[in-house]
């Protein structure tokens, strides 16, 4: 079986149960590789399965079930495993072999918490001392937080741990166990009769009972999953009575299982009372339990996904996935993912916008399934890019840069959409291994507020650079890679409406029905501000000034934009930045929003040298308090990596001034991680000078949610007045060897360049020198050996006398 799955360092790790000893596997491309040192139960075949995994302080922790000796806990730093429980200072089962399983894990208040399953099965008895909870700070000895099942030995196990709004919640398995033994064969049946699960909470130091008795349904035997959703802690139970068949000959092991279902329950807790969301099963009483839950956006709407166990008969189980939108439960998969031998869906996890589901399958071996719920289904072809922002009025020059990395010519169909309605088509040819530039001002005429949709049957990548003299006071430029699909939800971490800053939100509605909008601004000064009553007509675009929406009050703010239709949203900001030194660096930056949050973000570019001020903006639009861990990688010879942690309360945002974290005169890349999804952007402001380019301004990007092996950048120019750079970040533990190919508009593909990016650092390349002068070019960076990387492309310029800079993360 696959029980836990977690995102560690941007890769998916799975804990595998195996009767010859558990192991951990990691997904590399399309291959699941065994993590060295974890095979055969970490060298102990009695470690039958891994039941819990969490990432804590940059390490992966795994807890086992071991009937014979007591559970073990191991930690992994990306290279080696360390045994924490089971050997050395603390023996198996935290020193008590009756703690047969490290059943649950969670991080709370800077510590790792582990809940146990305490069970003692003998020839004539089944008993328990009661579940325990232990905590660990990563260095000092483990501390016992709960003993004796919260003074109730009927609480055999802490089956679920979850932090919610700064409080740790523990759900139990509460049963009476009876044993019927055949002394001649050594076979026995253990019957577990529900006494009603319990829910406990821990504040700063003590535990309090939230609810017991199975939430007024005594047949709710266990709290098997908890997840924050819709402003509540959602609690999933397993309901009914079970019989477990075991043998003592030649050693104790489980040989069979049956369940008499009473219909699972789903409950919500908002800090007051536990109230029923659904009882008696989702479809009917054959639905006996929810084993895992996650939240994820689907078609722009946040859903709660649940792995449901279903007892077709006492001895025939099957699993499926259900989806909940806050009002209705829907089936999201077939029974067993179409395979009846998948008797349970044991785990759910998300990574890079994709959903993963692991199974229990004792006949054929476990399976892992994957789906991308946001994958566009455009009828035209393989590539579609949307741009909400665009303007051809006085003081603005807009382009589209279209890169073609293939061996075949590509045709791009552009549809321009305007404020107030109306469309205009254009067709552009892009030669193979080349790129084309479209002058949008020339294509649509002057004084147009214009959005664009670019489609092709071939593989292309499209960016939109714009240069400006904003209101005849601030000059600069910004650039963005297009969105690949519209959505009903968009997120932006950065935003400011104070003096010297004009923040805008551009919304494209490509649908045939008007889009009604709701703006959820998370301000640092006054909490959440909700603005309603705004809309965008069909097949049109509208621009909204955040300063005006917020009443002219200066706010540091993030934004969640919700729409009744699928739309595309961008956020340009124009500014006179005073910063830390009353600088008055003026310019502008723009980002396309993201439709989903992630647990990891990478920023390849970054510097704290003189003339640069770098920030991180962190957004938590959810209902849980979070802690974001930061790993700062410095340039070669500039010192060891710096690690920091930042609390991020629910429905909030905060900023981090990077020089305060790592010091000045550093080149810095950043890796941010959290156990729950969040959003991160990196605004940078500058007074740049190199060669013939001297410019003030700023640029901003949303971080890459993952590393990758094949990055593409459509825009690029090495002519007079432009400095183009590549920043390559390698967060891995070994060197990454990469090939760089420049696809020029003038000469096609240039000879391939090879570069090595050392482990745990970043490399900066000046494209003007690497590719040569006077090229309009796209760039492809591919890893040929070693770990995956992250690629950004900052550019600084003086264009028509307008000086500034822009930056994008490459397209993966």
Describe the structure.
This protein is mainly beta and about 800 residues long. It has a domain at about 385-810. Helix content is about 5%, strand content about 60%. The protein has 7 helices and 63 strands. The strands form 13 sheets. Strands 15, 16, 17, 18, 19, 20, 21, 22, 23 and 24 form a 10-stranded antiparallel beta sheet that branches. Strands 41, 42, 43, 44, 45, 46 and 47 form a 7-stranded antiparallel beta sheet that branches. Strands 48, 49, 50, 51, 52, 53 and 54 form a 7-stranded antiparallel beta sheet that branches. Strand 34 (about 410-420) and strand 35 form a beta hairpin. The longest helix is centred in the middle third of the chain and has 5 residues, at about 440-445.
Secondary-structure map:
Layout: E1 2-8, E2 11-16, E3 23-28, E4 31-34, H1 39-42, E5 49-56, E6 59-65, E7 73-76, E8 81-85, E9 99-108, E10 111-118, E11 120-121, E12 126-127, E13 133-136, E14 143-146, H2 148-151, E15 155-164, E16 167-182, E17 187-194, E18 199-202, E19 207-211, H3 213-216, E20 220-229, E21 232-247, E22 253-261, E23 266-269, E24 274-278, E25 287-298, E26 301-311, E27 317-324, E28 329-331, E29 344-351, E30 354-360, E31 368-371, E32 383-387, E33 396-404, E34 410-418, E35 423-430, E36 434-439, H4 440-444, E37 450-456, E38 461-463, E39 466-470, E40 474-478, E41 487-492, E42 501-509, E43 515-523, E44 527-536, E45 540-545, H5 546-549, E46 557-577, E47 585-592, E48 598-603, E49 612-620, E50 626-634, E51 642-648, E52 652-657, H6 658-662, E53 668-690, E54 693-702, E55 710-713, E56 722-730, E57 736-744, E58 748-749, E59 753-757, E60 761-766, H7 767-771, E61 777-785, E62 790-799, E63 802-809
Antiparallel strand pairs: 1-2, 2-3, 3-4, 5-6, 6-7, 7-8, 9-10, 10-13, 11-12, 13-14, 15-16, 16-17, 16-18, 17-21, 18-19, 20-21, 21-22, 21-23, 23-24, 25-26, 26-27, 27-28, 29-30, 30-31, 32-37, 33-36, 33-38, 33-39, 34-35, 34-37, 39-40, 41-46, 42-45, 42-46, 43-44, 43-46, 46-47, 48-53, 49-52, 49-53, ...
């Amino acid at each position: 079986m696959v029980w836990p799955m977690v995102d560690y360092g941007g890769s998916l790790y799975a804990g595998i149960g195996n009767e010859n000893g558990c192991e951990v596997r990691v997904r590399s491309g399309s291959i699941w590789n065994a993590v060295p040192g974890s095979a055969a139960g970490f060298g102990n075949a009695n470690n039958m399965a891994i039941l819990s995994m969490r990432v804590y302080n940059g390490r992966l922790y795994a807890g086992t079930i071991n009937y014979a000796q007591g559970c073990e806990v191991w930690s992994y730093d990306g290279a080696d495993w360390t045994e924490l429980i089971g050997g050395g200072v603390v023996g198996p089962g935290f020193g008590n072999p009756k703690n047969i399983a490290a059943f649950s894990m969670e991080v709370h208040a800077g510590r790792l918490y582990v809940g146990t399953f305490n069970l003692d099965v003998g020839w004539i008895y089944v008993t328990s001392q009661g579940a325990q909870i232990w905590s660990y700070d990563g260095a000092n000895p483990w501390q016992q937080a709960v003993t004796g099942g919260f003074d109730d030995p009927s609480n055999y196990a802490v089956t679920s741990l979850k932090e919610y709004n700064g409080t740790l919640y523990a759900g139990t398995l509460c049963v009476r166990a009876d044993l019927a033994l055949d002394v001649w064969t050594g076979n026995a049946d253990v019957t577990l009769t529900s006494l009603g699960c319990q829910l406990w909470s821990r504040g700063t130091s003590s535990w309090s009972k939230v609810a017991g008795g199975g939430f007024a349904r005594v047949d709710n035997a266990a709290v098997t999953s908890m997840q924050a959703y819709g402003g509540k802690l959602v609690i999933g139970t397993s309901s009914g009575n079970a019989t477990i068949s075991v043998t003592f000959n030649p050693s104790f092991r489980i040989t069979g299982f049956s369940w008499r279902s009473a219909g699972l329950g789903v409950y919500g807790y908002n800090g007051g009372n536990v109230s029923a969301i659904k009882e008696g099963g989702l479809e009917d009483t054959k639905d006996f339990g929810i084993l895992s839950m996650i939240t994820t956006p689907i078609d722009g709407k946040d859903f709660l996904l649940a792995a449901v166990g279903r007892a077709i008969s006492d001895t025939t189980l099957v699993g499926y996935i259900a989806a909940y939108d806050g009002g209705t439960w829907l089936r999201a998969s077939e029974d067993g993912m179409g395979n009846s031998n998948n008797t349970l869906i044991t785990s759910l996890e998300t990574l890079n916008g994709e959903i993963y589901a692991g199974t229990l399958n004792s006949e054929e071996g476990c399976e892992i399934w994957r789906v991308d719920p946001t994958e566009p289904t455009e009828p035209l072809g393989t590539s579609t890019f949307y741009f909400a922002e665009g303007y051809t009025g006085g003081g603005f020059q807009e382009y589209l840069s279209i890169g073609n990395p293939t061996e075949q010519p590509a045709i791009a169909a552009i549809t321009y959409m305007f404020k107030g309605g109306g469309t205009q088509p254009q067709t552009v040819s892009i030669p193979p291994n080349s790129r084309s530039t479209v002058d949008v001002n020339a294509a649509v005429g002057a004084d147009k507020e214009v959005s664009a949709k670019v489609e092709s049957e071939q593989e292309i990548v499209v960016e939109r650079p714009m240069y400006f003299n904003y209101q005849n006071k601030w000059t600069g430029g910004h650039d963005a890679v297009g969105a690949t699909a519209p959505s009903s939800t968009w997120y932006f971490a950065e935003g400011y409406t104070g003096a010297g800053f004009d923040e805008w939100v551009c919304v494209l509605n490509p649908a045939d029905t008007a889009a009604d909008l709701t703006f959820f601004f998370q301000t640092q000064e006054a909490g959440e501000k909700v603005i309603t009553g705004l809309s965008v007509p069909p097949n049109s675009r509208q621009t909204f000034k955040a300063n005006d929406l917020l009443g002219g009050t200066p706010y540091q703010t993030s934004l969640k934009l919700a729409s009744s239709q699928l739309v595309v949203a961008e956020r340009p900001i124009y500014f006179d930045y005073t910063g830390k030194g009353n600088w008055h660096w003026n310019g502008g930056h723009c980002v396309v929003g993201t439709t989903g949050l992630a647990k990891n973000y990478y920023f390849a570019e970054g510097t704290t040298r003189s003339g640069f001020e770098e920030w991180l903006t962190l957004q938590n639009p959810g209902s849980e308090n979070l802690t974001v861990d930061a790993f700062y990688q410095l340039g070669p010879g500039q010192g060891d990596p710096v690690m920091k942690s930042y609390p991020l309360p629910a429905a909030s945002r905060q900023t981090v001034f990077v020089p305060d974290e790592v010091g000045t005169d550093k080149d810095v890349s950043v890796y941010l991680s959290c156990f729950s999804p969040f959003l991160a952007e990196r605004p940078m402001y500058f007074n740049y000078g190199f060669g013939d380019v001297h410019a003030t301004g700023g640029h901003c990007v949303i971080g890459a949610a993952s590393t990758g092996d094949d990055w593409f950048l459509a825009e690029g120019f090495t002519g007079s007045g432009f400095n183009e750079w590549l920043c390559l970040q390698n967060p891995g533990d070994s060197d990454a060897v990469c090939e760089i190919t420049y696809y020029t508009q003038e000469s096609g593909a240039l000879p391939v360049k090879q570069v090595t990016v050392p482990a745990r650092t970043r490399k900066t390349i000046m494209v003007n020198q690497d590719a040569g002068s006077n090229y309009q070019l796209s760039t492809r960076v591919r890893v040929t050996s070693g770990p995956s990387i992250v690629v950004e492309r900052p550019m600084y310029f003086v264009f028509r006398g307008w000086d500034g800079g822009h930056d994008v993360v490459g397209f993966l």
